C-alpha cells in the first residue's frame, strides 16, 4: 500500500477508534455506567 | 394508558441499542459504494466534515427532542414535535417519524431476510464449487422466487416471513428484548467484522489469478484512501457525503427520538449520543472500508470493482470470493459476513418498530404484544409486494420515497423546529442538561446555521440533481442560457417517471415494452400505497389529538 493513503487511513481510523473508546471510557467511569 | 413506564435497563444498553439502530447494512454496503463512486479518497474528507457539522448535531437534536417529549409522556414523533410548539401542524410533520419506519421496515426486513437465508446457505455449503456467474445467478433466482429451502418453494417469501416473526417476537418483549439483542449483536458484529477486515488487510496480491493477474487488495485501499484535493470543489461529492452521513446515522427517521423518550429525565445526552455516533463511524470507516472493496479488489482487480460495485455485490460476489478460501474458512467467512449483516439489519429493524408501538401505546393504550403484532402485520402487508414485485422495481420506490426523500424532509423540518421555533437557547440548554461532557459552544451556532444549511443543500441537491451529477457543467449551462439539465435521478424527474418513459419511447420489442409498462404501473402503485400509509397515520394522529383535547 502506498505511504500517503496508508498514513491517512491510519490517522482517520485511529482517530475514530480513539474517540469511540474515550467516549466508552467516560461512560463506564460515570455513575450510571458503573451501575 | 395505565401501562407502567418502560425505561432502559442500563446506560450501556441504551448506547448499544442506539448504535445498533444506526449501524445497518449501509455501513458495509452503501459506504464503500459511495466512496468508490465518488472518487475514493476524495470522499472521506467531505464525509468527515459532514459527520461533524451535520451528523453529530442532528444526533444531539434528536436525542434531546426525544428526552424532552419523554418527560411529557410522548414516545413518538407526532406528539414529541407537537409538545415543542403550540402550532398544530408540527404533529403532522411528526407523522414522518412513524411513516418512514413502517415503510422502510417493509423492504428492509426483506434485505434482512436475504442475509438470514445466505447465512444458512453458507453453513450448508450451497456456494461451494459455483462460479462467479453461478453465484450471481443464484441471487437472481432467489429474488425471482426460483429457489427453494429444503423443498419449501418460494424461499424468499419463507425467509421474509421468518424474519418478520423474529422481529415481532423481540419487539413484543419490549425495550428489554431490544437491549438484549443489541448487547449480543453489536459485539458479535464487531467481532465478525474484525475477522473479515483482517482478511481484507492481509490479502494483498495472494488472490491474483490467471484471469485477473493484476488483482491486488491494496489497490482497493489505495483507491479508497488516496486524497484528490481538487475534487473537494465538486458539489456532487459533498452531496453524496452528506447523504451517506444521513443514512448511516439513521437520522431523520424518528427512531432516535423514540429510544431517547424512554430515558430518565436527567440522563446525559451529549456523551451518550456522541458514543453511539462514533460507534457507528467505527463500524463504517474502520470495518466497512476494509471488507468489500479490498477483498473484491484482491480477487478481481480495482477496475472490476469500479465497474461492478453496488449493493448486490454483497450477495452476488462475496459468497464466490469466500468459496476460494477452502471449505471450512469459506463457511466461516460466509457465516461471519452474512451474520454481521443480519445483526446490523435486525438492530435497525427493531428500532423501526418502536415509534409505531410507542404511539399506539401512548394514544390508544395498546400493550406490547398488540403493538408488536400490529407492526409485524403492517410490515408483512406492505413488504409483501416488495418481495413479489421486486423485479418490477417496487422495492426501489419504497427505498427512494420512504428511505431517502422522507428522511431529508423530516430532518430539515425538525432542525428548523429545534433551532428556530423552539429556540436555540432552549434547545442548547436541553442538550446540555445532565451532560457528562462539555460540548464546545461553537456547536450552538453550527446547529442554528450550518446544519440547516447543509440539510437545505442536500434537499435542493436531491430535488434538482443535474445530469450526470455534474454541478459545474449544469451551472455553466444555466449561465449560458441553456437551462438546468435535470438528471433522471432528481426528485423532480423521479416523480414523472421520466427515465422509464424515455426507455419506453425507445423500446422496440414487445417484451421490453411490457416490462417497462409494468415498471411504471408498479412505481405508481407503490407511491399510492405509501401515500395511503401516510394519510392513515395522519388520521390516527388527528383522532388521538381530538381525544386529548376532549379530555382537557
Automatic annotation (TrEMBL), chain B:
<feature type="transmembrane region" description="Helical">
    <location>
        <begin position="322"/>
        <end position="351"/>
    </location>
</feature>
<dbReference type="Pfam" id="PF00209">
    <property type="entry name" value="SNF"/>
</dbReference>
<dbReference type="InterPro" id="IPR000175">
    <property type="entry name" value="Na/ntran_symport"/>
</dbReference>
<feature type="transmembrane region" description="Helical">
    <location>
        <begin position="89"/>
        <end position="108"/>
    </location>
</feature>
<dbReference type="InterPro" id="IPR037272">
    <property type="entry name" value="SNS_sf"/>
</dbReference>
<keyword id="KW-0813">Transport</keyword>
<feature type="transmembrane region" description="Helical">
    <location>
        <begin position="445"/>
        <end position="464"/>
    </location>
</feature>
<feature type="transmembrane region" description="Helical">
    <location>
        <begin position="188"/>
        <end position="208"/>
    </location>
</feature>
<keyword id="KW-1133">Transmembrane helix</keyword>
<feature type="transmembrane region" description="Helical">
    <location>
        <begin position="43"/>
        <end position="61"/>
    </location>
</feature>
<protein>
    <submittedName>
        <fullName>Sodium:calcium symporter</fullName>
    </submittedName>
</protein>
<keyword id="KW-0812">Transmembrane</keyword>
<keyword id="KW-0472">Membrane</keyword>
<feature type="transmembrane region" description="Helical">
    <location>
        <begin position="12"/>
        <end position="31"/>
    </location>
</feature>
<feature type="transmembrane region" description="Helical">
    <location>
        <begin position="156"/>
        <end position="176"/>
    </location>
</feature>
<feature type="transmembrane region" description="Helical">
    <location>
        <begin position="282"/>
        <end position="302"/>
    </location>
</feature>
<feature type="transmembrane region" description="Helical">
    <location>
        <begin position="525"/>
        <end position="545"/>
    </location>
</feature>
<feature type="transmembrane region" description="Helical">
    <location>
        <begin position="372"/>
        <end position="394"/>
    </location>
</feature>
<feature type="transmembrane region" description="Helical">
    <location>
        <begin position="237"/>
        <end position="262"/>
    </location>
</feature>
<feature type="transmembrane region" description="Helical">
    <location>
        <begin position="400"/>
        <end position="424"/>
    </location>
</feature>
Amino acid at each position: 500500500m502506498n505511504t500517503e493513503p496508508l498514513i491517512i487511513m491510519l490517522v482517520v481510523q485511529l482517530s475514530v477508534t480513539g474517540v469511540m473508546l474515550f467516549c466508552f471510557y467516560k461512560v463506564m467511569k460515570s455513575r450510571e455506567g458503573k451501575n | 394508558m395505565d401501562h407502567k413506564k418502560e425505561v432502559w435497563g442500563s446506560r450501556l444498553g441504551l448506547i448499544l441499542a442506539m448504535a445498533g439502530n444506526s449501524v445497518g447494512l449501509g455501513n458495509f454496503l452503501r459506504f464503500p459504494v459511495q466512496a468508490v463512486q465518488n472518487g475514493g479518497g476524495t470522499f472521506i474528507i467531505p464525509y468527515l466534515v459532514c459527520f461533524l457539522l451535520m451528523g453529530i448535531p442532528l444526533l444531539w437534536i434528536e436525542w434531546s427532542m426525544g428526552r424532552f417529549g419523554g418527560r411529557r409522556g410522548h414516545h413518538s414523533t407526532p406528539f414529541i414535535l407537537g409538545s415543542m410548539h403550540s402550532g398544530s401542524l408540527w404533529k403532522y410533520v411528526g407523522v414522518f417519524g412513524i411513516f418512514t419506519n413502517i415503510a422502510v421496515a417493509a423492504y428492509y426486513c426483506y434485505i434482512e431476510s436475504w442475509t438470514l437465508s445466505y447465512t444458512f446457505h453458507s453453513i450448508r455449503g450451497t456456494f461451494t464449487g459455483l462460479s462467479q456467474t453461478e453465484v450471481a445467478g443464484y441471487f437472481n433466482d432467489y429474488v425471482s422466487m426460483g429457489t427453494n429451502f429444503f423443498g419449501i418453494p418460494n424461499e424468499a417469501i419463507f425467509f421474509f416471513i421468518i424474519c418478520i416473526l423474529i422481529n415481532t417476537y423481540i419487539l413484543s418483549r419490549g425495550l428489554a428484548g431490544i437491549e438484549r439483542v443489541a448487547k449480543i449483536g453489536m459485539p458479535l458484529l464487531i467481532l465478525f467484522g474484525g475477522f473479515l477486515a483482517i482478511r481484507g488487510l492481509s490479502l494483498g496480491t495472494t488472490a491474483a489469478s490467471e484471469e485477473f493477474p493484476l488483482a491486488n487488495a491494496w489497490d482497493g485501499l489505495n483507491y479508497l484512501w488516496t486524497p484528490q484535493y481538487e475534487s473537494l470543489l465538486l458539489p456532487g461529492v459533498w452531496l453524496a457525503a452528506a447523504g451517506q452521513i444521513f443514512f448511516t446515522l439513521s437520522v431523520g427517521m424518528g427512531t432516535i427520538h423514540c429510544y431517547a423518550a424512554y430515558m430518565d429525565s436527567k440522563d446525559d445526552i451529549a456523551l451518550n449520543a456522541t458514543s453511539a455516533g462514533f460507534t457507528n463511524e467505527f463500524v463504517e470507516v474502520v470495518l466497512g472500508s476494509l471488507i468489500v472493496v479490498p477483498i473484491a479488489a484482491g480477487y478481481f482487480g480495482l477496475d472490476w470493482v469500479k465497474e461492478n460495485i453496488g449493493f448486490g455485490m454483497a450477495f452476488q460476489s462475496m459468497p464466490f470470493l469466500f468459496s476460494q478460501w477452502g471449505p471450512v474458512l469459506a463457511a466461516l467467512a460466509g457465516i461471519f459476513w452474512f451474520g454481521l449483516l443480519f445483526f446490523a439489519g435486525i438492530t435497525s429493524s427493531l428500532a423501526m418498530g418502536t415509534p409505531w408501538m410507542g404511539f399506539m401505546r401512548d394514544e390508544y393504550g395498546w400493550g406490547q404484544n398488540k403493538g408488536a403484532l400490529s407492526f409485524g402485520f403492517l410490515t408483512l402487508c406492505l413488504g409483501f409486494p416488495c418481495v413479489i414485485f421486486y423485479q418490477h422495481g417496487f422495492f426501489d420506490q419504497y427505498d427512494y420515497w420512504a428511505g431517502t426523500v422522507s428522511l431529508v424532509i423530516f430532518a430539515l423540518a425538525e432542525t428548523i423546529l429545534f433551532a428556530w421555533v423552539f429556540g436555540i437557547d432552549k434547545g442548547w440548554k436541553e442538550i446540555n442538561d445532565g451532560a457528562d461532557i462539555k460540548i464546545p459552544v461553537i456547536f450552538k451556532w453550527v446547529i442554528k446555521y450550518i446544519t440547516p444549511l447543509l440539510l437545505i443543500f442536500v434537499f435542493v441537491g436531491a430535488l434538482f440533481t443535474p445530469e450526470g451529477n455534474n454541478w459545474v457543467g449544469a451551472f455553466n449551462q444555466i449561465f449560458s442560457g441553456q437551462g438546468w439539465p435535470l438528471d433522471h435521478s432528481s426528485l423532480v424527474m423521479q416523480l414523472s417517471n421520466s427515465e422509464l418513459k424515455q426507455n419506453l419511447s425507445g423500446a422496440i420489442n414487445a417484451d421490453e415494452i411490457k416490462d417497462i409498462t409494468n415498471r411504471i404501473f408498479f412505481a405508481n402503485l407503490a407511491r399510492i400505497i405509501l401515500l395511503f400509509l401516510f394519510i392513515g397515520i395522519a388520521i390516527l394522529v388527528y383522532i388521538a389529538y381530538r381525544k386529548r383535547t376532549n379530555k382537557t
